[in-house]
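Design request, tokens follow.
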């Protein structure tokens, strides 16, 4: 089997000749940040030799509120002060302006210091935004798909309605609102879901003959301990089910990306009809081990992940080999699982410890699985 064929078979829970393994958003196919950084050269060469890849890609052409970008509807400005820069984004809605402010430092993650929605009036402003069907551009995704070929899979991203709405608020405000006024939050998510589903239909049509995997990020924002499982059932399950169904009607598999604790929402994830859940973090970031999760998942949903990204930065020599052996013992010839890291490598340049551990994982996976 090819690396791609093996991964797709595992996602469909069909027989495989061996357990597949894949890197996560790091690959040597086409231009990308890891290819441009020589500190990743050894890892990329090993991926070429033996590693499968799972790479996210998304369509261009979607603007604010799932709509076609409208000239003048969104304005952005940047102010710099040394290595600090502030980006202010303004949305001009029919009922008034909405503003977001992000503070960043060069080489560090940014932080939103003012969110688009901070009041009930802001909610009404956002919901007044008109919908214009986007013209989706998949040229970038297609180029990546062709470059990867039979060496891995492309995860074609689509917008998840709850995540879209949650990202408009300060997260604490969103959590409180789901507890004190869930119907109001659900009204917003339903509004977003109607648009998201129309866009999903357009995306499925634009995808055509690409045997990619449709991919939803975001459900992790609606999981314990911050938000109870009942809210996940209300804000995620029914709407994501519609979008997964749209993918299935075109014969495409769908995956859900959900970091953290999934034990209490696992049955809801299964109810969405998704074909795969990733990145299934081990404890303590997650709250369920692979052996139990595979028993729950068998015949119902495939799994990908369980190699904790943080371990590449800190683990001693030999640890990654033992972890691969541990996972191989659990999988024990069964299908429905792809071994992969839980996160994209973000450090630029790559540290010596990270490189050593990543190389050890790649070579152990190729030898043991």
């Amino acid at each position: 089997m090819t690396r791609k064929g093996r991964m797709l078979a595992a996602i469909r829970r069909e027989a495989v000749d061996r357990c597949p393994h894949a890197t996560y958003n790091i690959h040597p196919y086409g231009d990308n940040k890891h290819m441009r950084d020589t500190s990743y050269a050894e890892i990329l060469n090993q991926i070429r030799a033996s590693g499968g890849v799972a790479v996210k890609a998304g369509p261009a052409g979607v603007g604010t509120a799932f709509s076609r970008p409208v000239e003048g509807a969104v304005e952005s400005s940047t102010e710099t002060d040394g290595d600090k820069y502030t980006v202010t984004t303004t949305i001009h809605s029919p009922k008034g302006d909405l503003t977001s402010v992000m503070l960043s430092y060069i080489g560090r993650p940014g932080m939103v210091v003012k969110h688009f929605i901070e009041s009930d009036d802001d909610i009404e402003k956002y919901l007044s935004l008109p919908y214009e069907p986007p013209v989706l551009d998949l040229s970038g995704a297609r180029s990546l798909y062709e470059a990867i070929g039979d060496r891995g899979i492309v995860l074609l991203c689509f917008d998840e309605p709850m995540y879209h709405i949650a990202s408009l608020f300060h997260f604490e405000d969103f959590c409180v609102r789901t507890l004190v006024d869930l119907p109001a939050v659900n009204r917003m998510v339903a509004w977003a879901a109607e648009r998201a589903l129309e866009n999903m239909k357009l995306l499925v049509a634009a995808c055509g003959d690409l045997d990619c995997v449709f991919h939803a990020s975001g459900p992790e924002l609606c999981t314990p301990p911050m938000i109870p499982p009942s809210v996940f059932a209300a804000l995620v399950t029914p709407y994501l089910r519609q979008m997964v169904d749209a993918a299935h009607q075109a014969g495409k598999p769908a995956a859900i990306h959900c970091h953290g604790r999934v034990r209490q929402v696992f049955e809801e994830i299964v109810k969405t009809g998704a074909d795969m859940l990733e990145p299934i973090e081990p404890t303590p970031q997650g709250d369920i081990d692979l052996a139990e999760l595979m028993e729950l998942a068998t015949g119902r949903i495939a799994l990908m992940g369980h190699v904790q990204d943080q371990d590449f930065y800190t683990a001693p020599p030999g640890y990654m080999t033992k972890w691969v052996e541990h996972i191989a013992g659990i999988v024990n010839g069964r299908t429905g699982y792809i071994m992969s890291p839980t996160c994209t490598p973000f450090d630029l340049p790559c540290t010596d410890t990270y490189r050593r551990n990543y190389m050890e994982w790649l070579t152990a996976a190729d030898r043991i699985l």
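Comment from the thread starter after seeing the answer: thanks! Residues 71-117 form one domain.
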